[in-house]
Structures are given as structure tokens and as C-alpha cells.
Amino acid sequence: MQDMKNTIPAVLISEVGPRDGLQSVKATMPTEAKKRWISALYEAGLREIEVASFVPAKLLPQMADAAEVVKHALTLPGLTVMALVPNLRGAQAAIEAGVHKLTIPVSASAAHSLANVRKTREEMVAQVRNIVALRNERAPRVLVEAGISTAFGCTIQGDVPQDEVVWLAAECVAAGVDDAGLSDTTGMANPAQVRRLFNKVRAAIGDKTGAAHMHNTRGLGLANCLAAYDVGVRTFDSSLGGLGGCPYAPGASGNVVTEDLVFMFEAMGVSTGVDLERLIAAREPLKAGLPGEPVYGMTPQAGLPKGWTTVRAGAARQGAGERNGSAA
Question: Is 246 an annotated catalytic residue?
């Protein structure tokens, strides 16, 4: 088991399973089971977790207990408690519940925007502006992130022009968000495309370029995360067991598996601050709360390599630092 106490993570793994994962399955995980699962994720070292979305219960009954789940997550010291909010009403409820960070989904695809939130892209930018104003008035310390969904393609519309993605990210930053990340909502991205688009977005909005949210629908999730890392991205969304997708994007299954993402970075010598053994153990409360729901992940299936210890991980980090130094 790796000792992460004295390690400053080089990347932030933002766990989205309790929101993105749970809202994408038919079954509803009981509230107490959600609390146990979130606690297990925290004990594994994850320090940013998207725990809920604040939407009408009639639309997503899986999220009806959002405020109660947030209340539990706020008891975990040092955890950034994040929630998705599609509109001003959701933002009001999330702020009242005490979240630390709001994520607003803003679709780069015009067709997906109408299907997902029933608003045009321009109307969503206006929503973002209103949510930022609410944050500034009531909870100035709360962070606001725009998640630019369908940034790499759309199952409804098809191609999404890169210039439109860059435009939308810039519009969201102009509206006052703290950062704008790119989401491969439909699992259509490839590594070359990821590098190009993140570079273009960074050229437009600089250090407000946010997280990479990749899906593994076509088996390229980890490759796309690595491509994003190569061009400077340091925050990555993922879901334990690969749970989730998007209920309003047909065929958009398969978030990147947190266990595999952490293994990739740690094996490279890039610290995540996450204990892999405890992370794999956190699958048990997930499976107990959603009996029969498929969970994925190559690392849990294969097991950790022989000799996977703090010493090995430290040596890998040292080697990575030496390589980076010589390259400079």
C-alpha cells in the first residue's frame, strides 16, 4: 500500500461516479449506500468528488437526495465537494446545501444542448452569467466550472467544429467562470484531436483551461487522458468502475475508469495522491449499493504488479523527474 501523506499530487483526479455514474444507471443507490461509497473514495485519497446534481427529482430520481449527500460529504476534511447544476434554480439549491464547487454543463453541440438542457448554447451562456452573479452575491468562495460537453463530437449532430468549442469556452470565461474544461461526452475523441483542441482552448483562455473529462466508449479514454496531460492538463475526471455516461447522448457509455487512470499515472511516476489498494477496495460499497450493475476496470481485474510499493512509486517519480530535467 502506498503512503501518500508526504506526497504533493502532480495531477488532480476528480471522481465523478457519485453524480455522472449514478445518474446514468436505471437503479437508484440508497442514500446511506452513497454515503458509504463516498467515504470509501475519500479514504482512498480522492480529494475532489462530484457527489450529486441538483435537478428536479422527476427528471433524475437518482439525485433526489442531493442535499443530504452533500451534507455528508461536507463532514470529510479537505474534500472539495462538487455538484452539477444545469440552471439557476439548481445553483441556488447547491449553494444552500454548502457545496464548494459548481459544474455547469454547456454543450458545444447545438443539437445536444437542446436535448440535454432544452436551451440553445447562447441561452446557456446567459445561464452561466446568472449563476456566476448568484455565486458572487451569496457565496463568493464557491468555484464555478463550465464543462464544455460534446467538445469532440456528438452522436446527435456529428462533427462539432473546433472553433465553436473555443468560442464557447471563451464565452463562458467572459461570463465569469473560474475555469472551462472539455468533455468527450460521446466517446468520439482521439489523442491527436485532444492535443489540438486543448492547445487551441489554452491559447484562447490561458490558465482557465480546466479538466479533461474523457469517456472510454471506443477504448481510447486513457490514451486521450495522456494526450491531455502531454499538453498541460492537470485535472482529470473519472469514475470508479467506469460507471456512467450521459442519459441524453445515445451510445455515450463508459467514463474513464478511475482505478486504471490512477494506475497509469502512478506507474509513470506522476503522483495522484490516491492509494490504489484502497481505491480498488472502494468498489465493494459501490457494488453493494448497486447489486448486479456492471463495473469495469483492467487494473482491478489484473491486480497490482508484484512489488507495487511506495519505494517503487517513488523511484518511478524520481526517474520521471530526471527525464524531465534532461529534456529541459
Answer: yes
All three cell numbers of 178, joined, read 473560474
**Grid coordinates in use for 28?**
437508484
Question: Considering only CA atoms, which of 272, 273, 270, 264 is closest in space to residue 222?
Answer: 264
Domains, the chain, ordered by start: 12-327 (3.20.20.70)
Among 154, 172, 225, 246, which one carries the catalytic annotation?
Answer: 246
Q: Which residues face 103 on adjacent strands? A: 84, 145
Give the C-alpha separation, 236 to 238, whole Å.
6
Separation CA 30–CA 65 (nearest Å): 9
- What predicted TM-score, i.e. pTM, was given to this entire model? 0.91
Question: Do residues 73 and 119 lie in contact, with contact meaning Cβ atoms separated by under 8 Å?
Answer: no
CB 217 within 8 A of CB 251: yes
Please classify residue 170 by burial: count the beta carbons closer than 10 Å to its beta carbon, then call 0-12 exposed, 13-18 middle and 19+ buried. Answer: middle
User: CB pairs under 8 A, 24+ apart, for 287-290?
Assistant: 288/33, 288/36, 289/29, 289/30, 289/33, 289/34, 289/36, 289/37, 290/22, 290/25, 290/27, 290/29, 290/33
Chunked into runs of 10 residues, the chain (328 residues) has average pLDDT values of 57 97 92 98 98 94 97 98 96 98 96 88 97 98 97 94 98 98 94 98 98 93 97 97 64 80 96 96 97 92 85 46 39
DSSP string, 31-65: HHHHHHHHHHHHHTT--EEEEEE---TTT-GGGTT
